[in-house]
Amino acid sequence: MIDTHCHLDLAAFDVDRDAVIERAVAAGVVGMIVPAVRPRTWAGVRELVRRHAAAGVRGALGIHPQIVPELDAEEVA
Q1: In which element (H, E) is residue 2 found?
Q2: For the whole model, what pTM was predicted?
Q3: What is the CA angle 53-55-60, rounded to 5?
Q4: Which of 36, 39, 40, 54 has CA 20 to 30 A from 64's CA?
Q5: Is the pLDDT at 77 greater than 80, yes or no?
């Protein structure tokens, strides 16, 4: 099973992110795709992927359409 949309990069997972990933793998999840919704989150998702690649964590870097009005020039430069 692959979770195609899990925001493991969110602060809500800071306290137990590793345990959440371990439980997912133990339950048979072989892949987890973490979508980064704006440029300032891309580095964090890349680091998450680097740390958990063996568990099947992958990233999808992009800009969510709902975020576009919030972007400033520095973030998209």
Answers
A1: strand 2-3
A2: 0.88
A3: 50
A4: 54
A5: no
